């Protein structure tokens, strides 16, 4: 009987037999009323994304939502983000741009020889990381307070509520966190407080699905929620941070409570340029990301990428060549502009970018790539070294006013320094400085200096369309890959008309010195012979561990997306 009823329901009405065929059609329910747009959020973890959405539902601004998301990421992504440092880019519907630098700073007693051993040699990298030498004064709370003071609508304490609940009531470990707890116990469980949170009595890592309750972090967040940012930078919490760092610093000059109290987030001038009529704005120094993105895009503008197509090896050959030129400039010139004369105007000057673009050939790869000579450049500098920054997360928000927030937050490496205070991991951001202060007798712009902020690859970016309307918020995690991920996403949207998720999901390709890495398992892997024919001699296929986020406007609809690799479990921390 049931089978006959289901079969009848599956038929068109005109073919159904009996009285049902001649009965009048039942009244159709009215379409549900369209819900008003409240804004949207992109984040690498859906629980943090929901924290931001909760602020928007309460009538909060894009800034409120971004801060709440950052705080929730501190809880659920302890390996990646939180109370470290960050860059905040705000683009308004009328084209206004504002950027705040919450990058960590070196202690006042730090010197260019900060990382050197007694004999003047540079020690193994992880020896520097897993010590107090690597910890900079955290800037995210000061950044958040400064942004909220200008653009917050909700009470400061309200922004902390989702994160406090996640920390106190508990959150389930996801597969990404579980894998890093298993792979990096020497860093994730370096101190007893971290061991107690993330490992059992036998020293085994807690598994995916197990619930972690972090009461110490809940109390830290409550303290700052109730008493403001000053409670982080002064008092018992600041003393705990300073004492933790000093105890693990092997020489004089360790961070002090006075260093923490002296921290200030800094207003910076954003960097802006044009790409095919779209206005693109990002973060200036000490970030290299904004300048690199503008250079990559600007050098490609004379090539018709749309006509070449997204599945053409020549398209991505051109992309790699532009990266190589941009990164040669980046490694030589970019540092904290409070300490080094960074030629920002010269680096993003359209005429300079056009001259650099003339070096690119669609037919063959450059044999060697050298930095350019932009106006205002200090030629008495040497290239420095820089590690791969992986403990990072990106947040994108749009609110009902069309305000775009692009906010990248980091603790530098996976689980930062491995040290912990107040329930959160302390960053290892100072290893983003060049550990060698000089090369061949020339100073390195990104050397350690007291109170200085290390260079970063982070590239939070906002974009307006040719009519001046907000259209795209984008950024990424992944160290030196960040500007490449960001530029690739913008090309996907502008040149290929892709959705936010499609643009983030484009196959990855990047030049690393003499090597070109293509994403294994994608069509680019099959294009290796074509890339080699264009002069790329060291092409290798590898897994692409990416972590981008974006929000794109299509008509009146805003689409929030994160890199599809995140949901597949293939991602940076």
Description:
The chain is of the alpha+beta class and 573 residues long. The chain is built from 24 helices and 21 strands. It has a domain at 271-357: Serum Albumin, Chain A, Domain 1.
Helical content (DSSP H or I, runs of 4+): 25-40%
Count every helix, treating DSSP H or I runs of 4 or more residues as helices.
24
What structural category arises from helix and sheet content? alpha+beta
CATH topology of the domain at 271-357: Serum Albumin, Chain A, Domain 1
N- to C-terminal separation?
Answer: 55 Å
Tell me the layout of helices and strands.
Blueprint: H1 2-10, H2 19-22, E1 40-42, H3 46-57, H4 62-76, E2 85-91, E3 97-102, H5 125-129, H6 140-151, H7 161-169, E4 171-172, H8 175-183, H9 185-188, H10 192-198, E5 211-212, H11 215-227, H12 230-233, H13 236-247, H14 257-261, E6 266-268, E7 271-275, E8 278-282, H15 289-300, H16 305-308, H17 313-333, H18 344-347, H19 350-357, E9 391-398, E10 404-412, E11 420-421, E12 424-425, E13 438-439, E14 442-443, E15 461-464, E16 470-477, H20 482-494, H21 500-504, E17 509-512, E18 515-519, H22 523-526, H23 528-533, E19 538-542, E20 547-554, E21 557-562, H24 564-568
Parallel strand pairs: 18-19
Antiparallel strand pairs: 1-9, 2-3, 2-10, 3-6, 4-5, 7-8, 8-15, 9-10, 11-12, 13-14, 15-16, 16-20, 17-18, 20-21
Helix pairs in contact: 3-4, 4-6, 4-7, 7-11, 15-17, 15-19, 15-20
């Amino acid at each position: 009987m049931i089978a006959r009823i289901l079969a009848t329901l599956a038929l068109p009405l005109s073919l159904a037999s009996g009285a049902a065929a001649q009965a009048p059609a039942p009244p159709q329910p009215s379409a549900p009323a369209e819900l008003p747009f409240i804004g949207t959020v992109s984040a690498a973890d859906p629980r943090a994304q929901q924290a931001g959405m909760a602020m928007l539902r309460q009538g909060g601004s894009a800034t409120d939502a971004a801060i709440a998301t950052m705080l929730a990421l501190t809880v659920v992504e302890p390996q990646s983000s939180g109370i470290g440092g960050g860059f905040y880019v705000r683009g308004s519907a009328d084209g206004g741009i504002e950027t705040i630098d919450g990058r960590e700073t070196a202690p006042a007693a730090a010197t260019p020889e900060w990382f050197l051993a007694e004999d003047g040699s540079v020690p193994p990298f992880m020896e520097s990381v897993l010590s107090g030498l690597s910890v900079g004064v955290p800037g995210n709370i000061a950044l958040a307070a400064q942004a909220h003071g200008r653009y917050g609508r909700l009470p400061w304490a309200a922004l902390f509520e989702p994160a406090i609940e996640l920390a106190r009531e508990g959150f389930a470990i996801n597969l990404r966190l579980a894998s890093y707890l298993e792979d990096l116990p020497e860093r994730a469980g370096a101190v007893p407080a971290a061991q107690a949170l993330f490992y059992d009595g036998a020293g085994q890592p807690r598994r995916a699905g197990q619930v972690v309750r972090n009461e110490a972090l809940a109390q830290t967040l409550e303290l700052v929620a109730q008493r403001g940012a000053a409670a982080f930078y002064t008092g018992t919490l600041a003393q705990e941070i300073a004492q933790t760092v000093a105890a693990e610093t092997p020489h004089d000059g360790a961070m002090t409570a006075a260093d923490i109290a002296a921290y200030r987030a800094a207003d910076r001038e954003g960097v802006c340029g044009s790409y095919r009529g779209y206005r693109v704005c990002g973060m200036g120094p000490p970030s290299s990301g904004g300048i690199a993105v503008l250079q990559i895009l600007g050098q490609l503008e004379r090539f018709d990428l749309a006509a070449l197509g997204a599945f053409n090896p020549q398209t991505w050959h051109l992309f790699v060549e532009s990266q190589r030129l941009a990164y040669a400039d980046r490694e030589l010139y970019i540092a904290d502009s409070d300490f080094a004369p960074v030629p920002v105007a010269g680096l993003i000057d359209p005429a300079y970018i056009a001259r650099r673009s003339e070096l690119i050939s669609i037919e063959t790869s450059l044999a060697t790539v050298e930095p350019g000579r932009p106006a205002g450049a200090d030629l008495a500098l040497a290239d420095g070294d820089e590690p791969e920054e992986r403990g990072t997360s990106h947040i994108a928000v749009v609110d009902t006013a069309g305000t775009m927030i692009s906010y990248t937050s980091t603790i530098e490496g996976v689980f930062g320094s491995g040290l912990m205070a107040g329930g959160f991991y302390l960053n290892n951001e100072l290893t983003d400085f060049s550990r060698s202060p000089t090369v061949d007798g020339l100073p390195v712009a990104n050397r350690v200096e007291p109170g200085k902020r290390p260079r970063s690859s982070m590239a939070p970016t906002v974009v307006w369309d040719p009519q001046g309307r907000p259209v795209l918020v984008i950024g990424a995690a992944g160290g030196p890959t960040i500007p490449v991920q960001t530029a690739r996403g913008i090309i996907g949207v502008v040149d290929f008309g892709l959705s936010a998720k499609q643009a983030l999901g484009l196959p990855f390709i990047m030049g690393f010195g003499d090597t070109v890495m293509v994403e294994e398992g994608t069509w680019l892997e099959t294009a290796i012979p074509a890339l080699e024919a264009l002069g790329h001699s060291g092409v290798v296929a590898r897994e692409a561990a990416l972590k981008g986020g974006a929000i794109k406007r299509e008509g009146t609809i805003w689409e929030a997306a994160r890199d599809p690799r995140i949901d597949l479990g293939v991602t940076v921390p």
